[in-house]
Design a protein that fits this description.
heterodimer; A: about 160 residues; 3-stranded antiparallel β-sheet; about 60% helix; globular; B: about 120 residues; mainly alpha; about 70% helix
């Protein structure tokens, strides 16, 4: 019963927090309305999100966020450098296949999002059986190294969080 | 004083990265490489403005503002998804399957090319 009413308790909490921050004042009013939204939205969208992901080590999430934020700063500088100082003819842009060990859909979504936000890579497609991602690299003289970086830096951490 | 200087520095940095990102859109050679400019260079551009704004409200006006965190959250949700959509359309309409590396498991195809047997041209 409780599980039916709150299919995603974490989503309920997040939506409430988001609503309070959107209102930008911490009042009972805002919290109650946030809770109402946090109850209705997961209920309405439950059909599209049947599974509940298990977070094995929530502490690692903080580490993951910090690593990704740092990488985004680095990525920005690198991409800016490539845009400003590299001739188009010297660009070694390629497609690479990233084989996945992750099985949880939520984790793969986060990995794909991370790849897009970080150094010179955009995730573009997924294999029909969900075991590899297609990634486009802006400048990758060493495609194998790029794949290795993605797997050791992000996928390994996501494995620890989700699986 | 220090707060105002940091805000100014952040704004200038943000403006610079925003400009580079937009310039990248013009300069890079094809659709897929052009996708890299707005998904990255602009993140730091927008991020810089948001941090500057939080600093301003906290340091100058003395209030804590959460709207910037929310904008960051929405940006981080929206940017990869939109980039994924654009990449997928580009793949399906303008990139032949032959040009792509194959998925890990032999015999499987990229989801974006399923149900499209006439081949792309």
């Amino acid at each position: 019963m409780l599980r039916k009413l709150f299919p995603h308790p974490l989503l309920t909490l997040v939506l409430t927090a988001v609503w309070v921050m959107l209102v930008n004042v911490l009042t009972l009013n805002a919290v109650v309305f946030g809770l109402i939204l946090g109850t209705i939205v997961p209920l309405v969208t439950a059909a599209y999100w049947p599974d509940r992901p298990r977070l094995r080590s929530p502490l690692k999430i903080a580490e993951y966020i910090l690593v990704v934020l740092w990488d985004i700063c680095v990525a920005n500088v690198q991409v800016a450098w490539i845009i400003l100082f590299k001739r188009n003819a010297d660009l070694a842009s390629t497609w690479v296949t990233v084989p996945l060990d992750l099985r949880t859909p939520e984790a793969i979504t986060i990995l794909a999002g991370t790849i897009t936000m970080t150094p010179g890579t955009v995730s573009a497609d997924m294999a029909e059986d969900g075991t590899s991602l297609l990634v486009h690299c802006l400048h990758a003289p060493d495609p194998k190294g790029t794949v290795h970086d993605i797997k050791s830096r992000y996928e390994r951490r996501l494995m620890e969080i989700f699986e | 004083m220090i707060v105002e200087y940091s805000i100014a520095v952040l704004l200038v940095l943000a403006g610079f990265f925003g400009l580079v990102g937009s310039f990248g859109l013009l300069k890079l050679p094809d659709q897929m490489t052009r996708l890299h400019a707005p998904t990255k260079a602009t993140t730091l551009g927008v991020g810089g403005v948001l941090i500057a704004s939080m600093l301003y409200f906290f340091g100058v006006e003395g209030t804590l503002s959460f709207h910037e965190l929310m904008i960051t959250l929405f940006l981080f949700l929206a940017a990869p998804i939109v980039a994924f959509f654009i990449a997928r359309v580009q793949l399906r309409n303008h990139v032949a399957e032959k040009e792509l590396p194959t998925p890990k498991r032999a015999g499987t195809r990229w989801a974006g090319h399923l149900g499209q047997d006439r081949g792309s041209d």
